[in-house]
């Protein structure tokens, strides 16, 4: 038996993303897409005869959903169709599809032939991923397997506007697939097309993976991987599949084109069904909807609405604000975080200084609340508040250590950092005389350590600094403490 290694094969990956669009009503009816303000969302309450697929009902196209797909196409450098866009029936039978078919697009999508430039952590430079198409369709209902041999269906999600974005098979590693997914998510958030929240189900991602001998032009047998609820799961699942394909080919086995699900706990994929082809869905034009012909003026109007995209923002941070490529990448990986940072800079803080605080202590506190879904735009402490705190540090009115404590206190309360500093007596001690008195007390209390330091144990200097800071409850100006200590000891 010949054992194959991954170096003998080239990995080929394509990605399909489904993103729920940020519209108030469903794709073909006026039912709301979100729960009522009181937070209740009883199953099968946001429904009507249209989204339940009742006989004799007629669909009406949601204009805003069309605009959001066109806006996404423009952001992805796609050709946005103005000739004719056709809706089609995609036929398959499953309990979550009330009509027995899904209204979708296939032959004539809204946007096609685009690209997205993606920075890949751990790999040199960037990769350009071709976008085959971005098209519009309706979401399915939500199935819940209740056990004991039966399932229940909630049709509240049925008919929600859904955008599918399909790439070319241009990705060559699971790491690139993860980076693409993360970059696309931030682009969708930046333009306001989707919340793109994988935890909440508003963004769902599937990977199509195959391997082929290095140098071979023909693609290998493709497998689709579903049930991916995070970018980490996407990367892990594709890594598993690449290894499985290589090992199978090394044993002389024939791979089968199929759909597999990812089992997060077991760390492996499992067979779900044979992979469908386009002809399995029996696409044909939707007879109840005429072809859609977006005007050139409409496309131009949407193009003018495009905000600064993540790739443009990264370039601005590096070229105009002088940030490192790493800091620019961290900030632009989260649209809300980058917007928060921009507002801190706008409040008068030097860009690099602002980046240190936003990507450092602020992000640490934000990550602590990650399980709650907290994002920078919902933090109680607004950007001008963080700018106020940084100004207090830079003005020597509070120590770096105490400033971190103030940030932790105001992060959730939104209170003025300056007010907290004054109320809690956390202002920095910059009086040279007071600092000298504390240093004298520390040196007198630790005379043996002083002798050891003067005998050559330089590591004790940090101990003395710590003792002075302890005596002043962290309020002493660290720079003055270091200067005075060194003068006294040497």
Low-pLDDT runs:
none
The helix/strand order is EHEEEEEEEEHEEHEEEHHHHHHHHHHHH
Radius of gyration equals 29 Å
Average the pLDDT over all residues and give the rounded result.
Answer: 91
Shape: elongated
Number of domain modules: 3
Alpha-beta classification: alpha+beta
- Read across the widest sheet, the strand sequence of neighbours is 2-5-6-9-1-10-11-12-13
Instruction: Give the amount of beta strand, in percent.
Output: 15-25%
| N-to-C CA distance | 73 Å
Proportion in helices: 25-40%
Give a short synopsis of this structure.
It contains 15 helices and 14 strands. With 490 residues, it is of the alpha+beta class.
Question: Can you tag this structure with a few keywords?
Answer:
three-stranded antiparallel beta sheet; alpha+beta; 14 strands; Arc Repressor Mutant, subunit A; 490 residues; nine-stranded mixed beta sheet
């Amino acid at each position: 038996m010949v054992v194959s290694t991954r170096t003998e094969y080239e990995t080929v990956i394509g990605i399909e993303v489904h993103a729920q669009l940020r519209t108030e009503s469903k794709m073909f009816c006026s039912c709301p897409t979100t729960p009522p303000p009181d937070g209740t969302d009883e199953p099968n309450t946001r429904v009507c005869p249209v989204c339940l697929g009742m006989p004799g009902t007629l669909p009406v196209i949601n204009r805003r959903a069309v605009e959001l797909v066109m806006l996404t196409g423009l952001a992805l450098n796609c050709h946005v169709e103005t000739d004719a866009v056709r809706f089609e029936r995609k036929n398959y039978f499953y309990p979550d599809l009330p009509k027995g078919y899904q209204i979708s697009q296939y032959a004539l999508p809204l946007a096609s032939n685009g690209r997205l430039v993606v920075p890949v952590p751990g790999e040199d430079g960037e990769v350009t991923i071709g976008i085959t198409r971005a098209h519009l369709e309706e979401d399915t209902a939500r199935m819940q397997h209740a056990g004991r041999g039966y399932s229940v269906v909630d049709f509240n999600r049925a008919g929600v506007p859904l955008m599918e974005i399909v790439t070319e098979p241009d990705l060559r590693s699971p790491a690139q697939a993860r980076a693409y997914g993360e970059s696309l998510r931030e682009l969708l958030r930046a333009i306001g097309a989707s919340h793109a929240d994988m935890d909440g189900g508003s963004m769902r991602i599937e990977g199509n993976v195959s391997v082929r001998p290095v140098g071979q032009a023909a693609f290998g047998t493709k497998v689709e991987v579903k049930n991916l609820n995070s970018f980490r799961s996407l990367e892990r699942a594709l890594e598993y599949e690449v290894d499985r394909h290589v090992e199978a080919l090394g044993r002389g086995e024939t791979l089968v084109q199929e759909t597999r699900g990812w089992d997060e706990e077991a760390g492996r994929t499992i067979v779900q069904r044979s992979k469908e082809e386009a002809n399995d869905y029996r696409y044909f034009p939707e007879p109840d909807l005429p072809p859609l012909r977006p005007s050139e003026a409409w496309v131009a109007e949407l193009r003018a609405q495009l905000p600064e995209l993540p790739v443009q923002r990264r370039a601005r941070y590096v070229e105009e604000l002088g940030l490192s490529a790493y800091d620019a990448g961290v900030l632009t990986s989260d649209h809300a975080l980058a917007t928060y940072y921009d507002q801190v800079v706008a409040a008068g803080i030097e860009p690099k200084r602002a980046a240190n605080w936003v990507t450092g202590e602020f992000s640490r506190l934000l990550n602590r609340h990650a399980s709650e879904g907290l994002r920078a735009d919902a933090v109680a402490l607004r950007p001008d508040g963080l700018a106020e705190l940084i100004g207090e540090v830079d003005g020597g009115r509070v120590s770096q250590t105490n400033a971190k404590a103030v940030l932790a206190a105001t992060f959730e309360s939104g209170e003025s950092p300056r007010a907290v500093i004054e109320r809690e007596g956390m202002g920095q001690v910059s009086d040279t005389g007071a600092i000298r008195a504390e240093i004298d007390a520390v040196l007198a209390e630790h005379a043996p350590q002083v002798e050891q330091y003067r005998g050559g144990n330089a590591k004790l200097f940090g101990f003395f600094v710590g003792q002075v800071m302890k005596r002043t409850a962290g309020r002493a100006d660290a720079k003055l403490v270091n200067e005075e200590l060194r003068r006294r000891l040497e």
